[in-house]
Amino acid sequence: MSGKSRQSRAEHIRHIMETEGDAVGTNTRGFNAGRYESVDKLEDYEGLKDRAREIKEDAIERLPELIDEVTEAVEENGGTVYIAQDAADANRYIAEVCEGEDADRLVKSKSMTSEEIEVNEHLESEGVDVVETDLGEWVLQLAEEAPSHIVAPAIHKSREEIAKLFEERFDPDEDLESAEELTMFARERLGELIREADVGMTGANFVTADSGTMALVTSEGNARKSVTVPDTQIAVAGVEKIVPQVEDLQPFIELIGRSGTGQDITSYISLFTPPINSPTVDFEDPDAVVEGTGDDREFHLVLIDNGRLAMREDEDLKETLYCIRCSACSNTCANFQSVGGHVFGGETYSGGIATGWEAGIHGLDTAAEFNDQCTGCSRCVEACPVGIDIPWINTVVRDRVNGKKDVDAEFLVDGLTPDAEESGPGLQKRLFGNFETLAKLGSSFAPLSNWVANSPPAARALEAVAGVDRRRPLPAFSRTTFVEWFENRDAVPPADPDRKVVVYPDLYTNYMDVERGKAAIRALEALGVEVLVPPASGSGRAPLSQGMIDTARSKAAAVAEDLGPYFEAGYDVVVIEPSDVAMFTGEYERLLPDGEFEPFAENSYEILEYVYGLVANGSDIDELRHADGDTTVAYHSHCQQRTMGLEEYSRTVLERCGYDVETNDVECCGMAGSFGYKSQFYEQSIDVGENLAGQIREADPDVVVASGTSCLDQIDDLLEERPRHVIELLAPA
Q1: How far lies 503's CA from each of 185, 439, 510, in Å?
Q2: 34 confidence band (pLDDT: 50, 70, 90)
């Protein structure tokens, strides 16, 4: 990416944050908080997620036969099923149905699939008036804007903006100010339009293969009206919406509202088995039950491929098809909370899962426009009701996008930061992806390297050439590495140790934050553990974050070779940096050959997780440093740490050592490794970080601690006080 392109992207992001950011942030954080509260009420939340995942895995595996089954079921009921190969094919068929009904108006409920194929535009070009009946979609239709959220399309619009829009378009007799007044006005206008419609169109959250039953999950009742009022109904759904049977709907109904908006159950859940059991509405008496079978009604189910069957054969994109469009991945994403779908989104889909959809449906070029908004924090994985590994999908797409690009200054990149990538990543990504090389150089020439790197001329050059924002202070390298310090220290190991561990020298601890490594050694030895710090390669997290999978795989292989003998000798591996723990216990399953991942998964521990385990099994916690009086600690856990369920270990040990611990509800600090250094994302990173900084300021703690390097750096840049790693606070002097 050129400097001009980076500047243009930064300006666009800044504009969206200024105009839409507050509304998006307030609403998505509200949804996310509601999710936490709602799922907490479920007795077996994880069990429901597992069941939902199993159903989707089975359905996608058997998709061709389920398509045949649902076709047979619908046609036996008198309906018609059309399998559309792509958007043009679907639009042609839908237009033919409207032409056959001599339709002047079609009313449709909210449907991402219909957005995907751009059916509105096609029908309008054919002379059919298309009316969105979902309030949010209708607002955007009037405003001629694209959705900013999968579930709440007008989330970026304030009440005042909607009121002004209605006044400009309709000149109402009375001022519309409250949400209730706006809703009632829209309800009356849409009711008239629905009543006069010739054709109704809906999407479908789920379609059951056994009976053709459609499940519509909405927060308004207009989807149901779009089904039951017109005599002709068209349902548009991607083929991935098919599940085997009606009974399979149960876990999804329990999860979809809770995951998306924090509602225990969505306002309207409608099951239709068309066309026989869908009588029309009597508008003169809407509460009356219309007798009859609906025999005169027409029903068309348009099942759309549009790249989905190819995605099914793609092992890395296949999981995308498990998506139930709940928007949990968007709501929990700190970057999405800051900029919404008009930045973090493509032609149709937005948020973390959008990369997979856009790559599979619209192509890599579309996905490339926003793919870097995913920082791999993994918070979306925990939030997803079917457990999709969204960060991996984003990484794979990033890798494929890299492979399509011509590399600027390739001779310079390869000479300075050699890697395993045959082609693709530009200068910025290769520099950040090969941070290990830069860290070694920086440490070797410290402190001179630190002075040079942060000098104004160097800062300007880095920004111009590699897009490293000059406003972001660069990390300071240590002349003596953590490994060198350990090799040369004069210390007596514990007598008769209960455990023996390897403390993994991650890049940040080894070359920059050596003091936290020393603290980890002091704490472990005080608790009776024999400790080693051998040389070891970087984990591969840096290149993986840039979509450099081949390089990450080579780093993982090197680490396996470095640590393998210690696993075999019965050593545990203790890791200070949470993102590296996530690599060892997660991504290495994809990066290492069969059999090499298991030792990492079974024997790798985050430092405070390990300290907690020692104390819980008899080690004397009094050997750790305790609070001196009433000491309030503001603790921010790393995003990967939270996803892995490791946050409580740090908090518990702190509390048992007498500290009064204050936590926060911020999903991510906004730094996210290299993300906060890139000039195109710097202001967004600061915007995300201010949410955390504000909560820390409000807590007014005596001490600020965090678990990850990125978090420590971001807090340091935003606050006046340098935070400390948790282990530095607890380790004995």
Answers
A1: 64, 19, 11
A2: very high
